[in-house]
Amino acid sequence: MKTEFWVLDTNTLLSALFNENSTPGVALKKARETGTLLISAEIASEYFIVFTRDKFEKYVTLETRIAFIENIIANALIIEPVLKINACRDSKDNKFLEAAFTAGATCIISGDQDLLILNPFNDIPIITPAAFLTRFT
Description:
The protein is of the alpha/beta class. It has helices at about 10-20, 25-35, 40-50, 60-75, 95-105, 115, 130-135; strands spanning about 5-10, 35-40, 75-80, 105-110, 125. The protein contains seven helices and five strands, in the order βααβααβαβαβα.
């Protein structure tokens, strides 16, 4: 059984979809090989909202984006956060902290400065995809 738990923010996943050979793409592949992705219902909802935006049609078809995010969700551990956290300067990003804290995530993988500035959060590293590849693989 995989014992590492990873939380990936929405933009990291979007970047991974757009280019699977990019640093976020390779980080997603390594995270899935070495552990389990963690999401909450709130994170899953954001994934769908962002991934179905019309502006991404010029890069990847809607069908491909939906299939990608459905695969991520189907293979993730879905958790229900045990408490509300209000630590991030962008309150929309607190859901990633809540999921990571609840499940004792190994780390949060993000390129978002609003999350990265909190590194570490309750002993959970918040690192870029590049740092993840250096540190955990």
